[in-house]
Amino acid sequence: MSELFDAVDALVASRATLPPPEERKRLRKAHGLTVDEVATALRVRRATVSGWEAGKTEPRPPERDAYARLLGKLAELYPADPDTVEPTAPTAPTAPTAPSRPDPALPVPVPVPSGPSSSSASCAQNTSASPPAPGTAPAPPAQAPSGPAPAPAAVPAPAPRPAADSEQPPTPPGSRPRSRSRRPGGPAPAGPAPGADTRFENGPLAVIDAEDGQVFAYCVGGLVLDVPARSVPALIDWTLREARLGQPRLSGPGKDADPLLVLTESACARYGLPVHLTDAERLAGRLPDDHKAVKQLARADWRLTQRGFGPWARVYRPAQGAERNCVQLCIPSWNALDTRHWADAAQLPPAELARVLGTYADRVMTPRGSTAVTGLELMTALHPPTRASEPDGTGKRHSEHNPGSLGTEPVDCAPCEAPDGHPLLAGLARFHRRTPAEVLMEEAYDWARPLTDEECTRRYLVGIDVNMAFAAGANGLVVGLDAPVHVDRPVFDPKLPGSWLVDLSHVDLSRVRLGKEWTRLQADLLPSPFTPTGDRPEGPAWYATPTVAYAAELGYDVRPLEAYVRYEKGRYLDAWYNRLRDAYVATMADLGVPATASPEEFLAAMDGHKDRDPGMAIVLSVIKATVKGGIGKLRERPRGEGWKPGRPWRALSRPTWRPDIRAAVISRTRINMHRKLVKHAAFTGQYPVAVLSDCAVYASDGPSPLDFLPYREGKPLPGGWRLGVSPGMVKHEGTQTVLWGEGVRERFGAPELNLARYIKSGEVTNQDSGE
Length: 771
Fold this sequence. Notes:
Elements: H1 2-14, H2 21-30, H3 35-42, H4 46-54, H5 63-77, E1 181-182, E2 205-211, E3 214-219, E4 224-226, H6 232-241, E5 260-263, H7 265-270, H8 279-284, H9 292-299, E6 303-304, E7 312-320, E8 323-330, H10 339-342, H11 350-363, H12 371-382, E9 386-388, E10 399-401, E11 446-448, H13 453-456, E12 460-466, H14 469-474, E13 479-480, E14 485-488, E15 498-503, E16 511-514, E17 517-520, E18 540-544, H15 545-553, E19 562-565, E20 569-570, H16 574-590, H17 599-606, H18 609-612, H19 614-633, H20 659-684, E21 690-692, E22 695-700, E23 730-737, H21 738-748, H22 766-769
Parallel strand pairs: 2-5, 5-8
Antiparallel strand pairs: 1-4, 2-3, 3-4, 6-7, 7-8, 9-10, 11-21, 12-22, 12-23, 13-20, 14-19, 15-18, 15-19, 16-17, 21-22
């Protein structure tokens, strides 16, 4: 009889009622869960959960009843409006369908703000210690509807401007902000999606521009608002009370992003700010404290952070309870948008600049400063240091450590992890040069060798570049979350993050283990995996865990002399990687390079992809810079500040100053590179001529990567190089002739000049070559 009951229970579970896909995603985000966490709990793949939330597939037993139970519990905690959520009828899984895409030549409708609203749209509702309020969730990415757009409704005329220069009459509760909205002619990207957080219905940011005596705020989706403010303090007030700008938190315990205002040159002039900083102001990185705008803010009880009124200024009032009052300013003409990454974004028309910045904000986060600063802030936004505790005996919640985060207090690094000038090294002689046995030197590759006689008979040198190499190195990486513990004569544990003093000079690349088999290689044609120069180590040296683990993987015994290990550990960077990966892949798709392309289609699509949409090409560049800058920021060095060696600098006070995490990411990235070099050499007999960071150059009979990459029936070598969009795959970096390479080396008298540095353009200058 029990078997019959089990069969009945299974039959009922197979038809368990589930909420619609949008509600499934809302409930997960409301509780601060990631797709990976849900997938791990249900013992399914990440892509499976994503398919359930996208409505492409439906769960089957036994996962279906467990998933229904999870959603049911979350629905009790975060109930939604019953009029807007209907359960999904149980259906058999269907084949995925391709999502419809809007015709770029057609205008896209964007909701025009109208009707009553509350002035509570201010970012003052943010809190870092409380979970999201029931029924609220981070806004889903905006999706553009397909088909032609209906004509926008008429909008009321703008309200009269206030008479006072720095004050505005308060907006009565329940009334609509005075600013009117309009849209310029022509197509525009989609605005906030239906069901988005109404506090931020106008998007994360606005580009403020002055024209013919009027000031306009260009928002995402082509929305344009009239700005009545006549001074900087009034502009801040308007932003918080009426503009409805900001971005929902990226993690349940986190904080909503403050609204961002980008001031054009005309806006700077309108509000009494210099269009360009003087040399003294540029060196100081800020306006002087006696500037008119700074004094206006002070009189209005607004404060500036320690960095003052600079290219990225933060204006705030102290939080009152759970309320925040904060606006960030970005001033492109003060070099806020570094041309190395943002190209000519500062020169874009306001609407286009809003599109570029808005896309980046939607896919990554609202910019908080340089790409490096934003990359680091993204780590914290996805793993906040604190969360709200369970209610105590009185029903109150308190702030507590958020497991898996870096916490709120900085931790000391190990002496070997400390960069030169760190307070831990204050006892060293000033000009002492530390040896590999004293300092951890995990850096990217810069290695090259002369061509062999056989390679000189080939016609081309072809460079391949790893997509988002450092992001791929961070994916799945276990890092330490606490302070290091010193251990003498430890037994190496590849699962324990840390720094290890070990002699790897005995590792012989002429005989390595690949899987279960030993393989012979030409060691002199490969870089060593243990040093950034590719030279074989000469004795004991400090290495991060991934480097030592790779030596063991190649079949060699490792016996550390000592180590600094961290027992509290976790995959802290996984969510960071996932968000940046998704942003990169989505932006590549916007540029006409889909993730589903075959190798041949991929190479064809990459040809001129940045010219198809210059704005999205900027977004792509900034996403890549966010990865590298964020990793680099983990070991930020002193910059000015009147610093002297042996004294602490400002970055050391951050919990995110973690040189050990940076070292682990770079170590794993370099090891990933070497593993593919070895797999390719063992299978094809081809060896790299040069390696620079994430670029490898091979001699080839043809000009294309397909002329030397071993594809069979469209499938790449397992564990080797693979052409494609995703991080860790490779793209074509550039092709030059072998005669070019030999000519360049002969010209500069450098037989081992790193040709990977010049393979893209073929241009070499005396400065590049070191002359």
